[in-house]
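Anyone up for a design puzzle?
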C-alpha cells in the first residue's frame, strides 16, 4: 500500500473510532433518536441536490437507509445513552463481520473456513466476558442493542451486495434521506414533544461539534476514503485495517469522555480483536477445514 493510502487508512479508522466518544458528547445533550435524525438529515441535505443518484432501484436505497439509520445508528446511540462505553460500542459493532459471514452461508452458499469458525467462538467468549462485566440492567440492555445494531449492519452489507451498487458514497447520501422521518416519528411516539421543545436550549457548541463530526468526518469523508481504498486495493488487504477502529475508540474515550476500561474489558477486547484477526486468515481453496450448508 502506498504511503499516502496507508496514511488515509489510518486517518479513516481513527476518525471512525473517535466518532464514538464524540457521539456520546452529543448524546449528553440531545435525545438519542433525535440526534440520529438530525445526523442523517444533514448527511442527505443539501447533498442530494448536487450528487447524482446512484443507478439502483429505490427499494435498495430505502432499505439501506432504514437499516443504516434506524436499525443501526439509532440503536448504537441508544446503547451508548444507556451506559455502554463508546470504546466498547466501537468494538461490538465489529461483530457485524461475523454476522455477515453467517448471511453469506445462508443466502449465498458461501463456505466458512476453520479460522472463521474459531474466530466466532473466541469472539463469543469475549462478548460473554463483556456482558458479565457490565454494570446494571440498563447497561446490559444497551450492550444487547449495540449487538442488534451490528446485526443490522450485516443486513446492510447484504443489501449492498444484492443491489450491486458501485457509487457507494452517493448511495449512502441518498439512502440517508429515508432515515430522518421514521426517527422523528419514533422520537415523538416514545417521548412526545419534549425532545423537540428542549432542542433549542440543548444545541450548544459541543452539540454542534458532535453533529458536524458525525456527518462530515465520520460519514462523508470516511466513506469516501474507505471506498477509495477498496477501489485501489483488494478487500482482503483493506478489511483488516478496520481492527484499528475499536483501538482508537477505546483510547480516545479515555481522553474525551474520561471512561477508562477495566482490566476485564481490556482482556475481552484483546480476545475479540484476536478473534477478528483469526477470522481473516485465508485458507487455500483446495485445503483446510470448511463448513457448507447442504443444498
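Challenge accepted. My sequence:
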Amino acid at each position: 500500500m502506498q504511503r499516502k493510502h496507508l496514511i488515509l487508512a489510518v486517518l479513516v479508522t481513527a476518525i471512525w473510532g473517535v466518532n464514538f466518544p464524540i457521539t456520546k458528547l452529543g448524546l449528553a445533550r440531545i435525545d438519542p433518536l433525535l440526534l440520529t435524525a438530525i445526523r442523517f438529515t444533514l448527511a442527505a441535505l443539501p447533498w442530494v441536490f448536487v450528487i447524482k443518484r446512484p443507478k439502483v432501484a429505490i427499494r435498495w436505497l430505502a432499505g439501506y437507509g432504514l437499516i443504516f439509520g434506524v436499525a443501526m445508528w439509532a440503536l448504537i446511540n441508544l446503547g451508548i445513552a444507556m451506559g455502554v462505553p463508546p470504546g466498547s460500542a466501537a468494538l461490538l459493532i465489529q461483530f457485524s463481520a461475523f454476522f455477515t459471514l453467517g448471511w453469506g452461508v445462508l443466502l449465498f452458499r458461501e463456505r466458512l473456513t476453520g479460522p472463521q469458525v474459531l474466530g466466532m467462538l473466541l469472539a463469543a467468549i469475549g462478548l460473554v466476558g463483556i456482558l458479565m462485566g457490565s454494570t446494571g440492567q440498563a447497561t446490559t440492555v444497551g450492550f444487547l442493542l449495540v449487538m442488534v445494531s451490528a446485526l443490522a449492519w450485516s443486513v446492510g452489507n447484504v443489501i449492498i451486495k444484492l443491489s450491486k451498487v458501485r457509487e457507494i458514497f452517493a448511495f449512502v447520501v441518498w439512502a440517508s434521506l429515508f432515515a430522518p422521518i421514521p426517527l422523528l416519528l419514533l422520537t415523538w411516539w416514545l417521548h412526545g414533544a419534549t425532545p423537540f421543545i428542549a432542542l433549542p436550549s440543548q444545541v450548544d457548541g459541543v452539540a454542534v461539534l458532535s453533529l458536524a463530526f458525525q456527518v462530515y468526518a465520520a460519514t462523508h469523508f470516511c466513506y469516501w476514503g474507505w471506498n477509495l481504498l477498496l477501489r485501489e486495493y483488494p478487500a482482503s488487504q483493506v478489511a483488516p485495517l478496520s481492527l484499528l477502529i475499536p483501538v482508537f475508540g477505546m483510547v480516545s474515550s479515555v481522553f474525551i469522555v474520561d471512561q477508562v476500561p477495566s482490566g476485564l474489558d481490556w482482556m475481552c477486547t484483546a480476545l475479540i480483536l484476536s478473534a477478528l484477526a483469526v477470522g481473516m486468515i485465508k485458507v487455500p481453496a483446495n485445503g483446510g477445514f470448511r463448513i457448507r450448508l447442504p443444498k
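A detail worth pointing out: The radius of gyration is 19 Å.
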